Amino acid sequence: MDILSELREGVLSASxxxxxxxxxxxxxxxxxxxxxxxxxxxxxGKTTLVRGIARGLGISGSVTSPxxxxxxxxxxxxxxxxxxxxxxxxxxDLDSLAVGEFLRPPFLVVxxxxxxxxGFFEEYPTWRLRLSIAPDHRHRIRLTQG
Length: 146
Ligand SMILES: Nc1ncnc2c1ncn2[C@@H]1O[C@H](COP(=O)(O)OP(=O)(O)OP(=O)(O)O)[C@@H](O)[C@H]1O
Ligand SMILES: [Mg+2]
What we know:
Elements: H1 3-9, E1 11-13, H2 16-29, E2 35-39, H3 46-56, E3 71-75, E4 79-84, H4 91-97, E5 107-112, E6 126-133, E7 139-145
Parallel strand pairs: 2-5, 2-6, 4-5
Antiparallel strand pairs: 1-7, 3-4, 6-7
Helix pairs in contact: 2-3
This protein binds adenosine-5'-triphosphate and magnesium ion.
The site of adenosine-5'-triphosphate has 18 residues, from helix 2 and helix 3.
């Protein structure tokens, strides 16, 4: 089955490595004009998934959570803009950062904690994923929109 169909049903991942592989496959399947919103509690694997997305885009450097600089840009087949909105309170913060500029090719914006920036994606096609921990401790990744 293709990765998007799998994710619509919900994929269970038994390791960070598996989650990275899912991210890499997802990156290859995404259309050029799409952003990604990653929802899920602390430690459910959002940043781990981004690491895989980066790998899928041919980005070789290390990907860490951009908590202290809001977003990080990586140069790959697309320019990956990894944003962590965990500490962002209101839209005012975003306006001053001009991050809306990234909602177009060749950028791929991936946002952790998108609930904190509800207006950010506006009309731009956004694929929404939800991560959670299953009762057997595996990490569940599900595409809820897109
Ligand atoms: N199947 C799995 N998928 C993803 N991560 C896993 C898995 N199993 C164990 N882990 C571990 O869980 C942790 C997930 O951390 P990660 O930083 O990716 O979460 P996060 O959702 O980005 O959290 P935060 O909201 O704090 O940014 C890592 O330490 C990772 O190694
Ligand atoms: Mg994270």
